[in-house]
């Protein structure tokens, strides 16, 4: 009888931990990878990724392969969609493009999405997205920085946690 109680208690503990973990959401936020026009005096209106950018997008997909991404949001621009494409392909997901001038919409959709989310934005939109996700720390991204990977862990209640990585 005592061993049955121990097994029942262990199962209850496992269920409690699993429920707690599933109540959290991880939101991965990146700036698009390197543009094909980077370094030019007059950049194209909607440039694609450079070879280095395509390699970085592939690296992002490799890095996130065990992350359980269930939704991907980008802006309407080619470079953000191309950055997300390898990850979308790896997870068999459709990318949802949201206008870059509406960061509130992308955050609303990300918060409502089940599971973990990837958001691909721009050097001027990523800091706003992070702020809207509840991050109080001021974030800046230099024009030549394409390797930031921000991970926002959103618990069911309480303050989110930010982890800043490079990839």
What do these coordinates show?
- The chain is of the alpha/beta class and 167 residues long.
- It has one domain (23-166): Phosphoglycerate mutase-like (Rossmann fold), CATH 3.40.50.1240.
- Helices cover 39% and strands 21% of the residues.
- The chain is built from five helices and six strands.
- It has helices spanning 2-22, 51-63, 78-91, 103-112, 126-132, and strands at residues 25-31, 69-74, 95-97, 116-121, 148-154, 161-166.
- The protein has a six-stranded mixed sheet with strand order 3-2-4-1-5-6, with helices on both faces.
- Strand 2 (69-74), helix 3 (78-91) and strand 3 form a beta-alpha-beta unit.
- The longest helix has 21 residues, at 2-22.
- The chain is globular.
- Mean pLDDT is 88; it is low at 3-21.
Q: If you average the pLDDT, what whole number results?
A: 88
As for the CATH topology, it is Rossmann fold
Largest sheet: 6 strands, mixed
In CATH terms, the superfamily is Phosphoglycerate mutase-like
Q: Identify the CATH class.
A: Alpha Beta
Please estimate the helix content.
Answer: 25-40%
**What are the secondary-structure elements, in order, as H or E?**
HEHEHEHEHEE
| Global geometry | globular
Kindly state the number of beta strands.
6
Oligomer: single chain
CATH architecture type? 3-Layer(aba) Sandwich
Count of distinct structural domains:
1
Name the descriptors.
167 residues, alpha/beta, Rossmann fold, 6-stranded mixed sheet, 5 helices, 21% strand
């Amino acid at each position: 009888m005592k061993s049955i109680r121990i097994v029942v208690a262990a199962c209850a503990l496992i269920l409690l931990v699993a429920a707690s973990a599933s109540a959290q959401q991880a939101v991965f936020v990146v700036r698009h990878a390197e543009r094909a026009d980077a370094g030019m005096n007059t950049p194209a209106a909607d440039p694609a990724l450079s070879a280095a950018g395509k390699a970085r997008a592939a690296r992002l997909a490799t890095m996130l392969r065990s992350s359980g991404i269930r939704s991907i949001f980008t802006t309407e621009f080619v470079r953000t969609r191309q950055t997300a494409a390898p990850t979308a392909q790896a997870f068999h997901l459709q990318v949802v493009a949201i206008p870059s001038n509406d960061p509130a919409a992308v955050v609303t959709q990300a918060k409502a999405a089940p599971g973990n989310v990837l958001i691909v934005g721009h050097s001027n939109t990523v800091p706003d997205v992070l702020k809207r996700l509840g991050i109080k720390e001021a974030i800046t991204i230099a024009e030549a920085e394409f390797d930031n990977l921000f991970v926002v862990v959103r618990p069911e209640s309480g303050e989110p946690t930010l982890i800043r990585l490079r990839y």
